[in-house]
Amino acid sequence: MVRCYSPEPLESEQLERILEKARRHPSAGFSQGIHFVLITDPARRLELARLAGEEDYAARGFARWLSVAPAQVVLAASQSDYERRYAEADKTGTDDWSLPYWWVDAGAALMLLLLAAAEEGLGAGFLGAHRLAGVKELLEIPEGVHPVGLVTLGHPLSDRPSSSLKRGRKALSELVHRERW
């Protein structure tokens, strides 16, 4: 996760390649209900940063990363796209939403977006939608579509490391359970 960027603009071709790869995420029932809102306008990026409380973040000694990143992508999951798809004849009776697959697909799309950015030699950071009160109104996201989060894209610069990194990664043996828990 990158949280410090050069203001150097990104090539539109880079952004298209990143979004093209991200849209090829797994999709339950091929519902294709994950949407991407690309924001490159500086004023709109600044407004999203304001919604996210970037000033408070900067006051704690961190670099402004939301407003400085030359591109932002808001991922959003359309529950209604999934419900419509699973109402079609070939899916009737398979609409058990005990696990809402739009969230699973959104996670897969997010991962592809992050990997595609890395493949382009760019940095990317993620901020959950719970920190973006008012994002639906600002971006005119329709009813039934739920923002998942915001991904920043840009040329990375070094930054003060997060205190979370001091914890280190858990050993593989703590996370992988073979044959049973």
Pairing-aware structural class of the strands and helices?
Answer: alpha+beta
- What coarse outline follows from CA principal-axis ratios? globular
Q: Please compute the radius of gyration using only Cα atoms.
A: 18 Å
Along the chain, the helix and strand elements come as HEHHEHHEHEH
Number of helices: 7
Strand order of the largest sheet: 1-2-4-3
User: How much helical structure, as a percent, in the residues?
Assistant: 25-40%
* Distance between the ends: 30 Å
Query: Quick one: CATH superfamily?
Result: NADH Oxidase
CATH topology: NADH Oxidase
Model description:
This protein is an alpha+beta fold and 181 residues long. The protein has one domain (12-159): NADH Oxidase. Helix content is 34%, strand content 17%. The chain has seven helices and four strands, in the order αβααβααβαβα. It has a four-stranded antiparallel β-sheet. Helix 1 packs antiparallel against helix 5 (101-119). The longest helix is centred in the middle third of the chain and has 19 residues, at 101-119. The mean pLDDT is 89.
Question: What keyword list fits this structure?
Answer:
181 residues, alpha+beta, NADH Oxidase, 4-stranded antiparallel β-sheet, 7 helices
